[in-house]
């Protein structure tokens, strides 16, 4: 029977389950730009432009291949404002009998979609999203066998399953993980690959005008929009990454530098998470570059680990633990998010750089996210809801399935150790080691207390002392606790006093 086939903004793949078996002669493909999805959080302007423009390009490609596409633009007169409203309207207008969807990536929408069949009184089929290497039932089976759910062991299973970087039943090079070789600071005079070009295609410019009109007060700027919005464009970006960025990606993937917004990163995650690229095709391309001698093993392994290891792992954790996962607050964090996360107006140069990068590109690489903005939120004790919402808003690759475990579990340890065995807390010394930020900062990274001290230094020890009862029993915090015990009372009081003064400045 003729079907209405719904394709969501992050499902822009011809291989998505809802399109499999589609009959161009009788099925109708529905795609809709709706206000509810654009504003359930106030998404970065570039994220909205990227997704709406990519949706329009994808729809046109389907039309070119003979499919009937019902595409609803945001400013269409009869736009119902929600996905369900547009599904309901399509059933009234089109000669279709059933709805076919692919499972979505966010719990709130999944709950809504589960009710659609009853509300419509029509057959609704929600197919599993099989664009991932590990199915959700497979992840649950893996998790059921373990007391702790560490990514490293999951990653090894995915290597064996895919055969990526495997030498028989052993890992290529003899080691599963080359993370220790991926932490080099940029050498002086290093010339990174050029940034992606500005995208000012006709479709992008049209959507930019819409976004300026409807979402002008959302976070972010549009004058440096660099995202490709077609599969061909995404493939070209992948080729550029492999040719120019991958050789140095392994050594410098954790490095940061003032004014260098991309370094050896490829901005591939936005395309992966929207469906324009698929995980195994990018991993296959990276593995081939290694085999051809174009990239070293630590670069290929580091990239593949992020895709078939971490990306698959956090998706599994999200669907395994929701909805209770989102409510966890293991450290009882309760502070509001500081305004400088939006304005970038702070004397902490590393934070100002990370926020500027985020504002200008809807992007910052993983160490900026984890060890600058995430680390600071952890040290300050920002409430999980506030920092999770910020990350979901500001990045073009952010969907709750990938954002929540990364932030809630990895960055702020609100899950109490489901993802990471200890909090990723660090002082200014880490940022100084991995960047040149501190040389341009008004604070002194070598000072621990006082007005000239790097705030990360005293906030770090304030965090440890504030959460001592919760952290002392953690076996991976032994060295930190011994260092704390060696501090005399006057040093501890000075550290706490510097932290209190910082909090007061925030409140003022």
From TrEMBL:
Q: Which residue intervals make up region (Disordered)?
A: 169-201
The record, for InterPro entries, names:
Crypto/Photolyase_FAD-like_sf, PhrB-like, Rossmann-like_a/b/a_fold, UV-DNA_repair_photolyase
Hey, what's the signal peptide range on this chain?
A: none
Q: What is the lineage of its organism?
A: Bacteria, Pseudomonadati, Pseudomonadota, Alphaproteobacteria, Parvularculales
Q: Which residues form a coiled coil?
A: none
**Organism from which the protein derives:** Parvularcula lutaonensis
- PANTHER family registered for this protein in UniProt: SLR1343 PROTEIN
User: Which Gene3D superfamilies does UniProt cross-reference here?
Assistant: 1.25.40.80, Deoxyribodipyrimidine photolyase-related, DNA Cyclobutane Dipyrimidine Photolyase, subunit A, domain 3, HUPs
Record protein name field: Cryptochrome/photolyase family protein
Q: Which Pfam families match?
A: DPRP
């Amino acid at each position: 029977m003729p079907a209405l086939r719904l394709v969501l903004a992050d499902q822009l793949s011809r291989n998505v389950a809802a399109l499999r078996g589609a009959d161009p002669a009788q099925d109708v493909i529905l795609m809709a730009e709706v206000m509810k999805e654009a504003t359930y959080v106030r998404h970065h302007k570039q994220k909205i432009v990227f997704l709406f423009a990519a949706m329009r390009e994808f729809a046109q490609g389907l039309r070119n291949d003979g499919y009937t596409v019902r595409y609803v633009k945001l400013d269409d007169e009869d736009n119902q404002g929600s996905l369900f409203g547009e599904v309901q309207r399509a059933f009234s207008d089109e000669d279709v009998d059933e709805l076919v969807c692919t499972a979505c990536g966010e719990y709130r929408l999944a709950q809504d979609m589960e009710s659609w069949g009853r509300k419509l009184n029509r057959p609704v089929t929600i197919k599993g999203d099989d664009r991932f290497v590990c199915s959700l039932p497979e992840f649950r089976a893996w998790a059921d066998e373990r007391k702790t759910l560490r990514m490293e062991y999951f990653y090894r299973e995915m290597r064996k399953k895919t055969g990526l970087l495997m030498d028989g039943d052993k890992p290529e090079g003899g080691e599963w993980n080359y993370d220790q070789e991926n932490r080099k600071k940029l050498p002086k005079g290093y010339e990174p690959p050029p940034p992606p070009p500005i995208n000012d295609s006709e479709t992008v410019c049209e959507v930019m005008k819409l976004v300026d009109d409807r979402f002008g007060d959302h976070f972010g700027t549009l004058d440096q929009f660099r995202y490709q919005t077609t599969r061909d464009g995404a493939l070209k970006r992948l080729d550029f990454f492999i040719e120019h960025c991958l050789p140095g990606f392994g050594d410098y993937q954790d490095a940061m530098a003032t004014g260098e917004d991309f370094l050896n990163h490829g901005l591939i995650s936005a395309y992966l998470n929207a469906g324009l690229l698929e995980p195994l095709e990018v991993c296959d391309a990276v593995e081939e570059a290694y085999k051809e001698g174009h990239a070293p093993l630590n670069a290929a392994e580091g990239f593949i680990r992020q895709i078939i290891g971490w990306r698959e792992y956090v998706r599994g954790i999200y669907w395994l633990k929701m909805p209770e996962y989102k409510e966890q607050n293991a450290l009882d964090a309760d502070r509001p998010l500081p305004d400088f996360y939006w304005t970038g107006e702070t004397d902490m140069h590393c934070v100002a750089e990370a926020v500027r990068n985020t504002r200008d590109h809807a992007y910052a690489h993983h160490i900026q996210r984890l060890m600058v903005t995430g680390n600071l939120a952890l040290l300050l004790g920002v409430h999980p809801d506030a920092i999770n919402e910020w990350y979901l808003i500001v990045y073009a690759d952010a969907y709750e399935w990938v954002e929540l475990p990364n932030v809630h579990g990895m960055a702020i340890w609100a899950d109490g150790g489901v993802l990471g065995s200890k909090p990723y807390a660090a002082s200014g010394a880490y940022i100084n080691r991995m960047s040149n930020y501190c040389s341009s900062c008004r604070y002194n990274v070598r000072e621990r207390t006082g007005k000239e001290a790097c705030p990360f230094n005293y906030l770090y020890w304030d965090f440890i002392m504030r959460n001592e009862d919760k952290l002392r029993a953690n076996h991976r915090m032994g060295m930190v606790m011994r260092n704390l015990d060696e501090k005399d009372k006057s040093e501890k009081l000075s550290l706490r006093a510097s932290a209190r003064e910082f909090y007061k400045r925030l409140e003022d």
